[in-house]
Amino acid sequence: MNISFRAACLSLAVVALAPAQFRDLATTADGSRLYFLSSLRQRRTAQPLFSKIYSLDARGVSLVWEFTPPGPNPYDQYSVGPLQAAGDGSWVTYGRLRNCIGGSSCFLNEQRSASLVTGGATEGLGPNARFSRDGRWLVVYSSPNVLMRYSRRIDRRDGSWVDLPKPSTAPAVALDGTVLIPSYDRLVLWKDGATRELAPGVEMAVMDDAATTAVYQTRTERHLRVVDIASGRIWPLGPDTRDNWAPNLSSDGQHVLYLSRIGKTPQVFFSRRDGTEWKQLTALDSGAREAVLSGDGRTAWVATGDGAILRIDTGTGAAEQRIAPIPQVDSPLNGAIGSVVSLVGSGFAGVESVKIAGRAVPLDAVYPDQIYFQTPWDLTEATDSEIAFDAGDPAFDAAFPFNVRSQWPVASGVVIHEDFGSLVTESSPARPGEVLHLYVMGLGPVAPRVATGQPAPSDPLSRTLLPFEWTWSVGGETIAEVLYSGLAPTLTGWYQVDVRVPVAVDNSSIWLAVRLNQAGAWASWGLGYIPVQR
User: Fold this and answer.
1) For residue 171, which of 223, 220, 211, 134 has the smallest C-alpha distance?
2) Residue 394 and residue 43 in contact, taking contact as beta carbons nearer than 8 Å
3) How many whole angstroms separate alpha carbon 5 and alpha carbon 488?
4) Which of 104, 123, 147, 365 could be a cystine partner for 116, CB 3.0 to 4.6 Å?
């Protein structure tokens, strides 16, 4: 081969944004304890790999609540969050969303539920819930897409309740029972049965404990505005020349923590409500995913883009890393037996070994945002396995659900011209009738078989056994002429498919796909567009 296969794979890789390892941050009034959601498992435990509530304080990480699986495959049935914590840390709330796949049930039945966790016990609250910081006042409300919606404020001391205007996103509740309601592009204040509109064009909003100050995020552009509730006066916070979003307000309404994009990465900023004492708290290469402010305004907790958690003193700006970066990957994860698997994410630079179902597997290549490894030939198909990396904070296993498949075709993005001299690209398109060399993952069993971790031989060639059909989209579906399908000679776990471009094709990008009929059922995988020019 005349070009570097490794360089080709790296140059064409598109790195996806991995899901956050730590999310839905909530903290106490003094900032001494952080609550968060994570699907990670604590070291030396058998915790399942779906969302759990953890706390983090001076003693370290503790499990607060572990969810009971709703069915045989909990990973795709429910999502969990957000969290809210009591000012004194005596309780935490969470919400759950059933992932509706369409149909009338999505709006005839409420898909959300909320619960209160106190001392290891839970209490159902309603579809959505938001408390005042002291836990006295509770607002429960239906989701926006549900018929027969309702919204109520409940006094937890005696159980009495009143109806409220229906919110479009989470309301905020002050200690005196005043409710701030983002309601369908308007910001409404409800107090003692009377409502007052504060601002139009609102996406989300927060309010202080005394109902003196509100900060909202605009809908059309992510900008922040401060509202003095008594006078109704509104002014901007943060520069309107860039995105500013996700505000947090101290309990006295005097300080605001928020995210703002600097270049391509979000960073954390802290300011008085009038814009003075404005400071940038983070300058992270990986950016900040989420941040939360303590009630006293003295502590910011930050979840970083590379999977770490920081605790920052807002007065001095001093930052302490409380959880070290942990590898992050896309999910759900699939890999075919015998094949190289490519995962994208972050934090892979320190990875020296990978295990599937507790078994070490051969590494093919490791980059900071992408990792390649081979799934052993003698594994068995399983949709409830896991993959683990030997990297990250000692409090957690860097482990994730992993599906071992018998085949799972995935394009590498590497397509090489007939003479093996260069890549097929927009500036160097394929020609009608040319034979292209495609490098693919996951085409299943081969003969003769090659030992795990060993490169495929050139003689004899190791050919695929499954009866795949390759198709082009050229004025309809055209069966592709395949000259070779098997392991790529001299490479480990990679497949090479030599396929001829249709002769009767105009200048265009044509879609290449592969399909397989097993027991009368078709499975299809798209391999992507290939540019062609006469």
Assistant:
1) 211
2) yes
3) 11
4) 123
Q: Is 11 helix (H, G, I), strand (E, B) or coil?
A: helix
Q: Which residues contact 522 (CB under 8 A, 6 or more apart)?
A: 515, 516
Share of the chain above pLDDT 90, in %: 76
Smallest Cα–Cα separation from 31: which of 449, 320, 407, 442? 320
Contact 56, 322 (CB under 8 A): yes
Q: How far apart are CA 60 and CA 327, in angstroms?
A: 20
pLDDT for res 56 = 98
Question: Which position has the higher pLDDT, 169 or 100?
Answer: 169
- Edge-first strand order for the sheet with 112-118 is 78-85, 92-98, 112-118, 121-126
Q: What is the pLDDT at residue 73? A: 53
Dist. CA 231–CA 198, nearest whole Å:
10
- If you average pLDDT over residues 471-478, what whole number do you get? 88
Residue type, 219: R
Which of 389, 398, 415, 410 has its CA nearest to residue 493? 410
Q: How far apart are CA 62 and CA 475, in angstroms?
A: 59
Give per-residue pLDDT as tens, 121-141: 999 999 999 999 999 999 999
Sign of CA dihedral 427, 433, 435, 441: positive
Q: For residues 307 and 18, give the distance between their C-alpha atoms in angstroms, rounded to a whole number.
A: 10
CA angle 122, 165, 200 (to 5 degrees): 115
Quick one: which of 379, 402, 386, 374 has its CA closest to 495?
374
Specify the 3-state DSSP secondary structure of 97: strand
Q: Which pairs count as long-range contacts for 128-131, CB under 8 Å and 24+ apart, including other chains?
A: 128/95, 128/170, 129/84, 129/93, 129/95, 130/84, 130/170, 130/171, 130/172, 130/173, 131/84, 131/86, 131/93, 131/173
The pTM for the full model equals 0.87
| For residue 331, pLDDT beyond 70 | no
Q: What is the DSSP string of 285-341?
A: SS-EEEEEE-TTSSEEEEEETTS-EEEEETTT--EEEEE----EE-SS-EEETTSEE
pLDDT in tens, 245-289: 999 999 999 999 999 998 889 999 999 999 989 999 999 998 999
Sequence-ordered list of residues with C-beta below 8 angstroms from that of 121, at least 6 positions apart, any chain = none
The answer to whether residues 531 and 424 touch, using CB atoms and an 8 Å cutoff, is yes
Using CA atoms, how far apart are residues 144 and 253, in angstroms rounded to an integer?
A: 28
Contacts of 102 (CB under 8 A, 6+ apart): none
Instruction: Give 453-513 as a DSSP string.
Output: T-PBPSSS--EE-S--EEEEESSSEEE-EEEEEEEPBTSSS-EEEEEEPPSS--SEEEEEE
